[in-house]
Task: inverse folding
């Protein structure tokens, strides 16, 4: 084979040789595949899934932190001191222990305190310190006591057992007997009528104490639970008896004012519907107006119509900013200056109630405009 043939052989063989840069390497394949539309679409899905996961995790941490802060505010202050921050596991353990204690405390009761409305809770908190609740049957002229709370011991220094199955009238002072009896009889004839009487009632040492009894007629079943109008039941008298300490408070408070005859009205209302649930009789001096017209009515109903919008806007501002304000208005057609205060519940940091104090502008010496 001559040199020319050798050279042709080499040229023909080299045409089938694979050189390194003739085809792409593995790394080059990756780069090309990554830039392909399919790979781009898959990468976009992975990034979107990762972002969704991060968002869900961030929201979960925020919700967890919010609930833990709320739980911390509900736990009694003696468990949390300013000097040491309580850990979350310990906080959860304290909450579980408190809930277990509550469940054990009320496991035998059919009605829990949480079933009370806010207004009922306010009323009971005010009255519980110096009062007791009782219930009697309406058997012709006999009012047999079928239920009485243990707080009677604190008010009259007598046990509830000594009241049960006895006639209520047997504990009333002889001079007040017919007054209370006539009130109860008139209540029987008109079940919608409100009952309120001041009398003297026998204590544990056979002496008599001045009290006030408020009450109403209710329909209950044999378990002493209220029934609806369509259900079978029987009538009972439900009364609350309390010591008239409010009269003493009234006399003391009236000494604080230079002009006791000035018109003053103080009340508390709900921050939701502005309905009045409490009247401070120790400050109120409306001798010619019955306080019954105010209960469970919106405070706006007693404001002059031209002043209602401004008064309503002020109520909204006070509730939204948790502050207080002082504005003029016409209340029961009298020019008054009203001080509006909001009170916050420390357990949940929500507006608990609004307190309003109306005072005649003519008698004020502290007007601030």
Result:
């Amino acid at each position: 084979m001559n040199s020319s043939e050798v050279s042709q052989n080499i040229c023909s063989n080299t045409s089938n040789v694979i050189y390194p840069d003739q085809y792409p390497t593995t790394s080059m394949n990756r780069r090309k595949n990554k830039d392909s539309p399919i790979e781009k679409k898959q990468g976009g899905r992975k990034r979107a899934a990762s972002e969704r996961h991060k968002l869900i995790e961030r929201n979960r941490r925020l919700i967890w932190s919010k609930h833990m802060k709320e739980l911390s505010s509900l736990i009694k202050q003696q468990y949390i001191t300013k000097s040491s921050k309580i850990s979350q596991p310990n906080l959860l353990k304290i909450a579980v222990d408190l809930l277990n204690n509550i469940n054990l405390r009320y496991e035998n009761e059919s009605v829990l305190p949480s079933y009370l409305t806010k207004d009922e809770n306010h009323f009971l908190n005010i009255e519980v310190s110096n009062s007791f609740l009782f219930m009697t049957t309406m058997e012709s002229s006999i009012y047999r006591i079928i239920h009485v709370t243990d707080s009677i011991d604190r008010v009259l220094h007598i046990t509830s057992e000594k009241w049960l199955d006895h006639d209520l009238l047997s504990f009333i002072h002889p001079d007040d007997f017919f007054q209370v009896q006539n009130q109860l009889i008139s209540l029987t004839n008109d079940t919608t009528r409100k009952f309120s009487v001041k009398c003297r009632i026998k204590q544990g040492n056979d002496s008599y104490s001045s009290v006030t009894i408020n009450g109403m007629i209710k329909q209950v079943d044999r378990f002493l639970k209220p029934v609806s109008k369509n259900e079978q039941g029987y009538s009972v008298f439900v009364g609350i008896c309390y010591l008239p300490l409010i009269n003493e408070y009234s006399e003391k408070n009236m000494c604080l004012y230079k002009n006791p005859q000035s018109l003053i009205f103080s009340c508390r209302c709900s921050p939701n519907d502005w309905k009045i649930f409490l009247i401070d009789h120790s400050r109120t001096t409306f001798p010619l107006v019955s306080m019954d017209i105010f209960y469970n009515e919106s405070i706006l109903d007693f404001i002059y119509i031209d002043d209602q919008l401004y008064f309503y806007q002020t109520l909204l501002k006070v509730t939204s900013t948790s502050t207080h304000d002082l504005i003029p208005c016409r209340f029961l057609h009298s020019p008054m200056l009203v001080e509006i205060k909001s009170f916050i519940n420390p357990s949940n940091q929500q507006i608990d109630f609004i307190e309003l104090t109306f005072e005649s502008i003519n008698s004020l010496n502290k007007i601030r405009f």
